Every structure is written in structure tokens, then in C-alpha cells.
Amino acid sequence: MDTAELDKITQRASLLSALRTFPVPTISVRQFALLRGVSLPTAYALINSGEVAVQKDGRKVSVLVAPLLESMGFPLTPPTLIAGGEPASEAAILGAYAAAGATSTDDVLAITAR
Fold it and tell me: In angstroms, what CA-CA distances link 10 with 6, 41, 67?
């Protein structure tokens, strides 16, 4: 395995860990391509085909994190459980995800219920 390939694997693992620990609502298409291990043109093709949930703001396209992680087999994990802290109450966990995603707790419940 060459150094460039190892660097991409390290970047992918680091990004995945960060997204599962500190959830953000969206990521860039470039970050999506890194996570999926595809080229940028392939990432845009997946987005244009409707296979990936996105948020559009004019010409800017951002990939929605929660559906992406779940489609990759990584359900959302409460940050306190990853960090080794005390387990938070369900209401606190839902509130944290809602705040991170600028959505309501009902939206978080709908996403996690899938």
C-alpha cells in the first residue's frame, strides 16, 4: 500500500469518526467522495441520480450526514457514548442531534426510526 492510499484511508477514518462523534447536518461533495471512496465526478453522478440525500442552496450542494451515515451502516451514536461519558437521557440525545442539525426533535426521531 503506497503512502497516498494510506493517507486517504486515514482521512476517511478521521472524517467518519468526527461525523459520528460531533454530528453536523451536512458535508461537502468533496467530503462525501472521500467517505464513499469515489472520485468527485462519480460523487456528483450519485447525487444527480438521486441516490444521495442532499440540500441545495442555489448552486451549492451539500450532502445530508444522517442519511449518508445510515446508508453506510453507521447509525448515529450519541456523542457521550463514543467519548466514554455518562449515558445521556433520550431527551438530551435527541436535543443534541436536533441542535447540531438545526432541526426539531421530531425530525431527528423520524430519521433515526428508519
Answer: 6, 22, 23
User: What is the four-CA torsion angle of 60, 76, 86, 89, rounded to 10 degrees?
Assistant: 90
pLDDT digits (tens, 9 = 90+) for 5-45: 778 888 888 888 888 777 788 999 999 999 999 999 999 99
| Beta carbons within 10 angstroms of residue 101's beta carbon | 19
* Cβ–Cβ under 8 Å, residues 23 and 100: yes
Task: For residue 39, give the C-alpha cell.
Answer: 472520485
pTM, entire model: 0.63
Separation in Å, CA 44 to CA 5, 15, 19, 79: 22, 19, 21, 30
DSSP β-ladder status, 26-27 and 60-64: antiparallel
Backbone angles phi, psi at 56, to 5 degrees: -110, 135
| Contact residues for 91 (Cβ-Cβ < 8 A; gap 6+) | 105
State the residue for C-alpha cell 431527528: 108
